[in-house]
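Self-study notes.
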Amino acid sequence: MIARPPLVVPLFALGGFVILLGLVLAGGTPLVDFDTSVSHAFREYGHRNPDLIAVLRVATDVAATLPFLLGGVAATLALLGRGQRRAGIFCLVVTGVIPALWGLQHWLLHRPRPLDGFVTATSNGFPSGHTSNAAAIALVVVLLLWPRQARTARVVTVVLAVGFALFIAFTRLALLAHWPADVLGGWLLALVVVSLAARTATARIATARTATVGETTTAQEEVSDPAER
């Protein structure tokens, strides 16, 4: 089973992404000033903590493209092997669409990364690929486990998933691999894609449930009002 996000979630995320994309393309002073000030703070932090930067260089690649693809394919095969066809297809779609979309935007949008970062990256930066991947992983895990878990387990899963996504975002900022707007764009992109994929994968189930509820309500009304027969 897959938890079905309400429609407002992808719509809200899509609206936010479009607005952010417009601001990035316009290069407005408020956004530039914000990106610059945050990155400057992380630059100073990195120079004061070189050992931490060395650790983050390794840790950030947990959400790199190759591990993301390999993990996604492995999860897909595992789900299909257990007979969970919808969940497997859902996982496969997310695995393919997320890197395809952020990769396309890196190719189309001119968005230089911060200069002299602590890692070498030559491609454009919006949205952050690592952040998109990490957020997608977190969302997929939550949506797949949510229907199977009790309340306490759900809280633990959400906390761990959000923590993972935030940690990868932190590594991208601390390493000066991306501007803050790139990271925010990665979160929004993942939220749009994963929530839409989940809604699509569960569309027939939701329709069937609605029809069943309608039939049950009609039957109850007929039984409770025999005088009209």
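Second protein, same conventions, sequence then structure:
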Amino acid sequence: IVLNLNTLILSMFLFMVEITLAWTYHYSSVRKNWSDARLYCQTTFTDMVVIQSQEENDYIVSKLPNRTGSPYYWIGITKNHKDDPWTWIGNNSTWIGEKSWATNEPNNEHSTEFCVEIYVNQGENRGKWNDEKCSNKKFPVCFKGE
């Protein structure tokens, strides 16, 4: 009985840890510059989304609406200077998938593209990333920790 009780307690603990580590994704229907988008995510949810794998990237894209004329969403990866590495907010990870960037991206056009959008349009660039000026307005993708 002691072994079964210990197993039960351990199982309950692991279940609680799983719940604690869960999160949900959200997006705004209002376009914002990158800084305002992050502030929106932080005040309304937990923060801007931090993508940790290609599977997560694909899942998020599958849930976002393809908005006619503007199928672009801000994600939580940025840099401060053209020579800096791309870094995810919150965890400072530098994970970049092999297939993450759209063709010929990041290109840092005009040396001022320090934020990243994700495409949700149909076609070869669906789910791909593009470096973009942080002042441009896109829809933010946020997450909420449970």
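Instructor comment on the second fold: The domain at 23-145 is CATH 3.10.100.10 (Mannose-Binding Protein A; Chain A).
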